[in-house]
Write a structure and sequence with these properties.
six-stranded mixed beta sheet; five-stranded mixed beta sheet; single chain; alpha/beta; 330 residues
Length: 330
């Protein structure tokens, strides 16, 4: 178990204890605490609120979910550590972050493994791929509940990038994922892991020269104010993942477990529509911010990361998933 910052642990524990005391004095309903690092205006926050409403409705109020946005209970990684220890009930993470806890999620992090959005969804919905991965992590202290669309990941930088050659010598912020770091090295950049909350300042002060994420990072989180080039290379489609602590999961009744899973599926469908609309609007906002949207030489990027596909085929932790994902595109 990784070390947890005491302040975050104390905060999360205090919130949970306070919630339990309030619940015991008013009703027998159980309230789960759900942490995420998104803004309240972000699609993922709206999807998580939708999930919370669905859980309440499907359990007739017996189970409730309280959503804590903006990293109130810790960074994404801290939330996962709290989840493993049982000090937090639920968290929204993503496959990149989860790869460090459960290697199976690494299958989603191979660049250009998905041909398009429909291929991506077929893999997530497959019982032998996406759903199996969700169920595989209980031994690591958490259980996957649902996936959320987080769009395609693209570069946004302080100077134009159209080919891997343009990345040479550039420091690019990545998530603390082995796959993300390896991808960036193969593309010629210097990978720089940083918490997302520190990225705006890092770009502003030129601690890093760019990052890679979906369009929401440029607009909703205002990174487009300090990074004026957005390159649509679409190197990855990495899903957000809603997870629940294994200890919390075991404490739920069978009916409430079923309700949580059903609410997760409904929230996934809700987010699919929401994200498609969001992407169109955010690209327009980015251009109004003065961000130049660039087209990439995608074939050059695909060629650069070919060794990752070869390595994935030999990796026993993910090879079966990778093979199955590619077979879905035939």
């Amino acid at each position: 178990m990784l070390n947890i910052k005491k302040t975050k642990l104390h905060l999360a524990t205090a919130v949970i204890i306070g919630g339990l005391m309030g619940a015991s004095s008013m009703s027998f309903a159980q309230t789960l605490k759900l942490s995420h690092n998104g803004d309240t205006k972000s699609p993922v926050h709206k999807a998580l609120k939708f999930f919370a409403d669905e859980v309440k409705e499907k359990t007739d109020g017996d189970l409730k979910v309280r959503v804590y946005p903006n990293g109130q209970l810790g960074t994404q990684r801290e939330s996962l550590e709290l989840l493993q220890s049982g000090a937090l009930d639920m968290a929204k993470s993503n496959a990149s972050e989860l790869e460090s806890f459960d290697p199976g999620y690494g299958a989603f992090n191979i660049p250009y493994i998905f041909r398009d959005r429909e291929h991506f969804y077929r893999a997530l919905e497959s019982e032998d791929i996406g759903q199996k991965i969700l169920r595989s992590s209980e031994k690591y202290g958490f259980v996957g509940v649902a996936y959320f669309d987080a769009g395609s990941r693209n570069f946004y930088t302080t100077k134009p990038v159209r080919t891997p050659a343009d990345l040479k010598g550039m420091k690019i912020r990545v998530q603390p994922s082995p796959s993300a770091i390896k991808m960036m090295e193969l593309m010629g950049a210097s990978p720089t892991p940083l918490p997302f909350g520190e990225l705006y300042t890092a770009l502003q002060q030129r601690v890093v020269d760019g990052a890679e994420n979906n369009i929401g990072a440029v607009t909703t989180y205002r990174h487009g104010e300090v990074a004026k080039y957005y390159t649509e290379d679409e190197h990855a489609m990495i899903p957000d993942v809603l997870v629940i602590s294994a200890s919390t999961w075991e404490g739920l009744s069978d009916d409430n477990k079923a309700a949580v899973i059903a609410a997760g599926k409904d929230a996934t469908a809700f987010m699919k529509t929401l994200w498609a609309e969001y992407t169109v609007e955010e690209l327009k906002k980015a251009e109004k911010m003065g961000v130049e949207v660039l087209q990439a030489d995608k074939d050059a990027f695909i060629k650069a990361v070919a060794p990752m596909h070869e390595a994935a085929a030999e990796n026993p932790a993910i090879s079966s998933y990778v093979k199955a994902i590619k077979a879905l595109d035939k």
